[in-house]
Amino acid sequence: MALRSKSLRRMSAAALSLLCTLLLTGCWNSRDIQNLAYVTAIGIDYKDNHYITYVQVLNFSNIARTETNTIGKPVPIWIGKGEGNTVVDSLDAMMATSQLRMFWGHVKAIVFTENLMRMGIVDTFNALNRYREIRYRLLVYGTKEKLENVFTKKSLLNLSPLDTIMYTPEQTYSQRSFIQPVYGHQVVARINEPGQPTMLPSLTVTREIWTEDTKGMPLLSISGAYFFNDRVLSGWLSSEDLKGSRWIQKDLKQAIIQVPNKDEVAATLALLKPKYRIRPIIDSGNKVRYDIDVRIQGKLFELIKDTPTRKLEKLAQDEVMQEIQETYRKGLAAHCDVFNLEEALYRKYPKIWHSQHRKAPYQLSEDSLRKITVKVSLRNTGKYKGRVG
């Protein structure tokens, strides 16, 4: 009797499970991944009191690494354009004709034009970050170029558009460290923090360097950086102007310099792993000046003129010091705090920083930089030994 009762209970449980299965609704809101338009980059311009938004859309079936794909085969890029009174309004105008549902979870880069940056990026950035699919860890750039020109540029060897410098700047930075990539969460933190300037790398199109056979191949490159003080665009400096800023980048992978000796190039060095300190000095009249101390390691890449290692270190120290001084002067002309000097003052002496900035938002001058100390240590001379002295 007990066995029969147990069987009936099992049958009842199975019947109930079957009934629950029949009552389940399907995944009506699901989408096949091949039927989505994946937005990978957003570009925003501002003209005539309205926003013009561009998006780059890629088909992942064309760019995924599979056995059936042909390396070097051109990959099509789709560009959408929308206009509106607000950022969201301009994006909504684009979605009206997209044909497919637009998915924003794979956005990897945002590019602002100079017109938009002059108007201000805070409201625009807040509007984009409010949408749950867009993540904070995306690359942020400014540009002087037309956004159509930026978004249609291909990669070397016709690889995936996701292999351009706009999406993978770390690959170039690891070989030639110049201007650090900037991510969305860093922009949010810096632009809302007193005493800390915000820097955005600038994208440009380089047309003279690479060719495919005899046909010129325009490719993207980092041409410089835009600087913001107190949320306002203060200026732009070229990569050449910013050479001295490399030596205060803690994540510096490798920077190449040539060291001159009496108007002749003596050697080519790779400098890496800098350690630096910025020290604000307050005099009796509350005048603020700054000392910069840099310690950096080096490797000898090319020895053109037979020179002892100690001499090369001294020449490299002089060259780095000169680059820092020159970049500081260029920054003054553009009202840019390239070396984050005032941030050091804000961290150590916040009361003095606040009292000074009530008078004027930009306090740096020609004599604000009091002393620069540089120490270069050559750790490697390659496969050949160098003369110590």
TrEMBL record:
Q: Which UniProt keywords apply?
A: Germination, Lipoprotein, Membrane, Palmitate, Signal
One Pfam family matching this protein:
Spore_GerAC
Name the UniProt record assigns to this protein: Ger(X)C family spore germination protein
Asked if the keyword Lipoprotein belongs to this entry, the reply reads yes
The record's annotation in InterPro entries points to: GerAC_N, Spore_GerAC-like, Spore_GerAC-like_C, Spore_GerAC_C_sf
Q: Which residues form the Spore germination GerAC-like C-terminal domain?
A: 224-382
Q: Where is it located?
A: Membrane
Q: Where is the signal peptide?
A: 1-30
Q: Origin organism of this chain?
A: Paenibacillus terricola
Regarding protein family, the annotation reads: Belongs to the GerABKC lipoprotein family.
Where does the source fall among the domains of life? Bacteria
Stated membrane topology is: Lipid-anchor
Q: Where is the Spore germination protein N-terminal domain?
A: 29-204
